From TrEMBL:
InterPro entries: NAD(P)-bd_dom_sf, RmlD-like-bd
RmlD-like substrate binding domain sequence ranges: 1-250
The protein's name: NAD-dependent epimerase/dehydratase family protein
Gene3D superfamilies: NAD(P)-binding Rossmann-like Domain
Pfam families on file: RmlD_sub_bind
Amino acid sequence: MRLLVTGGRTGYLGRRVVAAAAHHEVVAVGSADADVRDPAAVDALVDRHRPDVVVHTAYVQADPEVTGAGAVHVARAAARVGARLVLVSSDVVFGGRPVPYDESATPDPVSAYGVAKVLAETAALASNPDVVVARTSLILGDGESGHERLFRSLALGAHGALFEDERRCPVHVEDLAAALVELAANDVRGVLHLGGADATSRLELGRLVARRDGLDATVLRAGRRADLPDPGPVDVRLDSSLASRLLATRLRGAREFLAPGTTR
Ligand SMILES: NC(=O)c1ccc[n+]([C@@H]2O[C@H](COP(=O)([O-])OP(=O)(O)OC[C@H]3O[C@@H](n4cnc5c(N)ncnc54)[C@H](OP(=O)(O)O)[C@@H]3O)[C@@H](O)[C@H]2O)c1
């Protein structure tokens, strides 16, 4: 099986997907190979490599052209050559509510990033008969994520606060990468939630990382997302029980993979 992984050269998740797929033929690509905003460049890239599966991780959170339109171009190019598509999406397609979201929930994004992800999902599901949209949550766990770097800097005294009211289902980057490679090789189609097993606030997550890394977790200050002028999604827990039934890969919860004494 030949996999083409967008974001595979430099992306935090993409590089892990490339590593997890080492037993397959893998092509790792980045924006120097094809800017996803350019449909002709994406078509040429896909024609050049003729993948069986495209795993699309590339995005720029602040740029809907990359996140939304770019994914549309990738989805169409994959469909044109008959390639399966594994599209990485996000819990931010939801606006927040007090109960977890399963795959039957209708997206109701409240941020530009969420709107771009919904555009990507909708186009992928409409343009390719062989697609799985994999919605995930905060990705971390190996010490290298931007989230962990931020938590460490705050624990070392940098100015800032962590939301105590936000609730999401963080996932370990290696678990997620393994699940995406599993999905590349199976025939699951439609939408699938790939969150970790534990719902945590940003503050709890920061404390878990600080303790794992031997830092003083009590230094971390609490803030409230709901108090922001434009809070975005606050409680976006993913119900990932379908994935736990369909996949061999287990998506550990943050309290497990960040427990004191665990290695990164
Ligand atoms: N990180 C999280 O906590 C989180 C949470 C939920 C969902 N997600 C989803 O997970 C996926 C991966 O996130 P990540 O944290 O691994 O992202 P990342 O580290 O920021 O990597 C993004 C990748 O996108 C590529 N890219 C950017 N602009 C591009 C363009 N115009 N054309 C082609 N490639 C471009 C970059 O490649 P170059 O360097 O080659 O430009 C980079 O490798 C995204 O779809 C995101 O929505 C992430």
